[in-house]
Amino acid sequence: MAVKRRTSQDVLLSTALENFYNAAEEMGLEDDLVEILSRSERRVCVSIPVEMDDGSVRVFDGYRVVHSSALGPAKGGIRFHPQVSIDETEALAFMMTWKCSLAGIPYGGGKGGVCCEPLELSLKEKERITRTFAARIEPFVGAWTDVPAPDVNTGAQEMVWFMDTISKIRGQLEPAVFTGKPVPLWGSKGRNAATGLGVATCAIELLRVLGKDPKDTSVAVQGFGNVGSFTAKFLHDAGVKVVAICDITGTYYCKDGIDVNKAMEHTQKNPKRLLEGYTQPGLEKSDPTDLLYLDVDVLLPCAMEGAINKSNADKVKAKHIVEGANGPLTPEADEILRPKGIYIVPDFLANSGGVIGSYFEWCQNLAGFFWSEEEYNQRLTSIMRSNFQRVWEYSKEKKVEMRRAAFMVAIKRVADAVKMRGVFL
Ligand SMILES: NC(=O)c1ccc[n+]([C@@H]2O[C@H](COP(=O)([O-])OP(=O)(O)OC[C@H]3O[C@@H](n4cnc5c(N)ncnc54)[C@H](O)[C@@H]3O)[C@@H](O)[C@H]2O)c1
């Protein structure tokens, strides 16, 4: 490859670029496509002057990056965090391009963020930041250009403020510009469980291609928040034996299987949504990390990034892993586990139910017609199954591990779109 590789001081961006260049080289991607896809189409930096509750004015920095719109409008969340920077935002936009491409949905990749500490902000200050940021990026967002969503420290309330601000500036309701809205305000029934349903579907598909009956299978799910609890629930509903769940309060193990619905009811009653105090016959409680080392058929890390790393990967006894969280395995952990013949279903395949769910919300907003939760789940499951199948077959055909196969499938779809559309802007 004769391309001069772009680099960055930002660890996340430099990793995103390196991963892309390595996969592009392995695929034999043409140099002009490598040049085009190694850069973002648009990096917008804005200042956000905000009057604070004490009357002083603070100016925050905000960013919105579109890495690629070759396949459709850019899609990606907006985060509020003190470490947000333009390069980190660009790295996350890169990842969204590949995630949307792999998901088979008509979206490109984008990401946004505001550099702020939400813990130090009042609700009113957060609203003023959100609305001023929305006004500053207004020329760049739209249902057919760039469609943001919630991310770290933003949620349904922020999406309503964003939608309301853009709608007022444009003088018409603009529901399809943001996804992740609450059900009464153009949100979708089913979105809350979408990521977990997608993770569980991938695990069931993995068992299917390995010729294993879900009913003779044991799994352990790390994390019992949004992703972990719904992953465990859908696996449990499919007849899989969920022998262990955990959260920051501990590992909850039962050799005959956890009653996941009961555990979910328990966390719904807990003010912090924790498993603390959960009990059932035969339950054993231990440290949160113990779950990672159980001898199960499938381990599903659904809590946080870097959970399995070079210091603990050799203790993992699970036969296979499905990554529900973003980046739960470090590259070093990957290196340690791969020689053991473990199949690892990568995060941007396994947890793409969330972005597919956002796509459903956008479709419903554009049509002004809402689906039942049953229809939403049925469509999601069917897309996840075929996405899994595509990566599985590609990995067998090219004799590469699933993470690399997923990356190559994703890059190819975007590169083909760029090629067909031609080189003009
Ligand atoms: N929510 C989504 O739609 C979505 C979509 C894609 C990816 N993800 C990723 O999935 C992961 C989880 O997201 P979430 O929305 O479920 O978060 P969440 O905050 O709802 O839940 C996180 C859970 O992990 C547990 N946890 C945290 N640290 C732990 C530790 N050290 N040991 C054991 N348990 C621990 C928490 O107690 C909690 O139960 C994150 O990596 C997130 O980026 C989420």
From TrEMBL:
Protein's GO biological process: L-glutamate catabolic process
Family matches, as Pfam families: ELFV_dehydrog, ELFV_dehydrog_N
SUPFAM superfamilies per the UniProt record, alphabetical: Aminoacid dehydrogenase-like, N-terminal domain, NAD(P)-binding Rossmann-fold domains
Active site positions, chain numbering: K111
Secretion signal, residue range per the UniProt entry: none
Taxonomic superkingdom: Bacteria
Entry binding sites for substrate: K75, K99, S358
Annotated ranges, domain Glutamate/phenylalanine/leucine/valine/L-tryptophan dehydrogenase C-terminal: 188-422
Record: residues binding NAD(+): T195, N226
Residues at the site labelled Important for catalysis: D151
GO molecular function: glutamate dehydrogenase (NAD+) activity; nucleotide binding
Keyword Nucleotide-binding in record: yes
Annotated keywords: NAD, Nucleotide-binding, Oxidoreductase
KW Nucleotide-binding (keyword) present: yes
Family: Belongs to the Glu/Leu/Phe/Val dehydrogenases family.
Name of the protein in its database record: Glutamate dehydrogenase
Organism field: Acetomicrobium thermoterrenum DSM 13490
